[in-house]
Every structure is written in structure tokens, then in C-alpha cells.
């Protein structure tokens, strides 16, 4: 559900009532292998893709994030192509009541390695998110309080997503036809686990698909020739 703080970029999540939302192409979904627990830590690295051709009007992103169990609250370090350059920032999207906020953003270069880290401060029920360019050292941090349910209890973030979002013409996506998330580490209730993964898609565009390579690596591929 990433969007930019600019007039040319509208939210990508208005057409559906919850996640996974319209605009998501290939994605991987992770849950606790025990079926219980709250995400207390999640992190991953990936490399910024090459500059796409003929993509001045395009706006899309690979990203990973964590989601509440009702699929209505999404915290995500994102890496969008904005039509002129790749950027990095942190986004929070809340469906009810609808609310979107973005951290400070920064332009990144093809080949830069990005490192997103999400940690739960359990004492304050606040997620602390860090997004770092490991090549330049640029970093942004933000804090997102956990929303309460109508009952007054805190929501629980139990789902991980690795996603390529927003449909455009196939030739407008990067030529390498793959983004790989690696060094994936996840904790539920402060215990490191190997999540149970499934893959799917919402919009079937350019054969964009997620692949579980191993416990710490997920790739998303596409076909620019379609």
C-alpha cells in the first residue's frame, strides 16, 4: 500500500477493503509455524534494481512488511520506482479508520543494498522500524503504535509479507526480472522461527510470482517480454 507524498502518486489501496489488496502481484505470506504468537522482530535485505526503460509514468515497488491478524494494519519498509528514480522510506497503512503515513524518503541507486528491520517494544506496544542503505549509510527510523481493537485490547501483528506491488506494462519493469530478499530473520514472541510460507498473487501481471528459495531467502520474478 505504498504511496508517495507527492501529487502525482495516489494511494495504491483504495479498491479493496483489506490486504492482500488490488495492485499486489506476486507475494509470499509467512505465519508462525506454531500458529500462535506475535511478531517481535523481522528483517531482510535486498538490492535496488536497475533503472527501468520507458518507465517515466510508472510507480511500483518491491517491499516486505508485517501485518495485523485482521489484515488491516501494514508496516512496510518500501523501495518504490517513482518514475525518475528509486527511493526508500517506511510506510504505515491502516484501513480502519483509513490512515497512511510515510517517513522521510531518500533516493537510492541501482545496486545499493537496503536493510529493513522491524522490532516490537512490548512495554509500549510500539513497533520501531529502521530502513538503511548499507552502501551509503543513510538511515531512517520511525515508530508506529499498535492500534487497539474496539474491545480495547492491542491488535497482534502475526503475518509477514514479501510483495511486488502495482501493475504496469511488462516492458516497464527492471530488466533483471528478479528481486531477491535475503538474510530474512523472524521472531515470534522473541523466539527465532522459520515461518510457514505460502505464495500467491492478486493481479496476474507479467507472470510476476514469488518463490521460497530457503528459510532465509525469497525471490520475486517477472517476465518483461509479455
UniProtKB/TrEMBL annotation:
GO MF annotation terms: glutamic-type endopeptidase activity
The keyword Ribosomal protein is annotated on this UniProt entry: no
GO biological process annotation, one example: proteolysis
Stretch forming the signal peptide: 1-17
Protein name: Uncharacterized protein
Pfam family membership, one: Peptidase_A4
Keyword terms of this UniProt record: Signal
Family matches, as InterPro entries: ConA-like_dom_sf, Peptidase_G1, Peptidase_G1_sf
